[in-house]
Design goal:
Layout lengths: L1 H12 L2 H6 L5 H11 L4 H25 L1 H14 L1 H26 L5 E3 L1 H9 L5 E4 L3 H6 L8 E2 L18 E4 L6 H12 L5 E4 L2 H11 L10
Parallel strand pairs: 1-5, 2-3, 2-4, 4-5
Helix pairs in contact: 1-3
């Protein structure tokens, strides 16, 4: 996702990531608030943003300067083709969107992943011998949104299964994130299943579903981490 890409770029490049983000679709939208959440000063942020805007503008001016003759040729051809070109472009755009939708549904197809809803998880945890709950969000996400499920263990998706440690003893694990369609939790579940840990489930609806249920009934039990 764009958020995960932003987290990776910010963690690796620091302030320079604000310049790089200008050239990565979608990342430029979420990079600034993440920079603020991670403690970047206003002066430093404005300096990098100014440099990024300057590089972005000069880059496109340079491209226009280098390829101006080719652009004129393309516009001349399109003006001659007219409606045919417009229909062709529209069809290609629709095909591209359909392909992206198909790939997204394929990636998020979770028929192979067991889920558990919030109510069932609360009941299991109340029994005193419930599953271990694992927050697979990246550190940058947790810095921005510090809500969590009480007692949850924080292990980033990219650190699975290496950082499971004693949790990789066959106990049941319930994974959650705050991504659309539980994307990160599903990806983490697949990683753990491939590593030979069969007792893995994903919390349906993730953190938002848990918080919504907590708002209705705040008497949630503490997950057991043994």
């Amino acid at each position: 996702s764009c958020v995960q890409r932003s987290e990776s770029i910010l963690g690796r490049w620091g302030g320079l990531s604000l310049i790089l983000a200008k050239f990565v679709p979608g990342v430029s939208v979420v990079a600034p608030p993440m920079a603020g959440a991670l403690g970047m000063s206003n002066t430093r942020f404005l300096s990098y943003e100014t440099a990024a805007a300057l590089i972005w503008t000069l880059g496109f001016l340079l491209l226009g300067r280098v390829f101006h003759s080719a652009i004129n040729d393309v516009l001349a051809v399109l003006s001659n083709i007219g409606l045919t070109a417009a229909v062709f472009c529209a069809v290609m755009l629709l095909l591209f969107l359909a392909w992206r939708y198909y790939m997204r549904r394929l990636a998020l197809g979770a028929d192979d992943i067991a889920h558990i809803d919030v109510d069932a998880l609360r009941v299991a945890l109340a029994g005193g011998n419930g599953p271990t709950v694992v927050d697979v969000r990246a550190a940058a996400s947790r810095a921005i949104d510090d809500r969590s499920i009480p007692g949850a263990v924080d292990i980033e998706l990219k650190r699975l299964p290496a950082d499971l440690g004693a949790l990789a003893d066959g106990r049941e694990l319930v994974l959650f994130c705050d991504c659309p369609d539980d994307a990160s939790a599903i990806a983490a579940a697949r990683v753990l299943l491939a590593a030979g840990l069969p007792r893995v489930r994903v919390l349906a609806g993730g953190l938002d579903a848990w918080m919504a249920a907590e708002a209705v009934d705040p008497s949630d039990p503490e997950p057991v981490v043994a």
